[in-house]
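Hi, here's the filled form for the chain we discussed.

Project: internal
Contact: R.S.
Residues: 119
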Amino acid sequence: MTKVIFYRADGIYYGFEEKGHTGFAESGNDILCAALSAMTMLIINTVEISYATNVEYTIDEETTDIRVMVHSILPENSGTDSEKRYAVSGLIKGYYYQLNDMLEDYYDYLDVEVSDDYK
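And the returned structure, exactly as it came back:
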């Protein structure tokens, strides 16, 4: 099972962590794993390139654990304008809602939660 924890502060979604293998199918044939990977890379590339915002991410090739954080959009980082903050947070929040929709079909392979603890 893959557990995805989204991080939120004052209503702003600023990051997430994905841990574990989905176990939906064998490596190379796991469509759920492929979907998660594709959506994660879309978020990283969109934030970094389209929004020109620093995104901190790590991908552990061995465990497949992924951590994506965009601390620069938090209110205490005054260098980020509110439009960019709203756009980046909205993108991450959209991923959260997409995964929640997928839980209907993949509840045995996916767990999604939100944490308001600062990371």
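Let me know if anything looks off before we file it.
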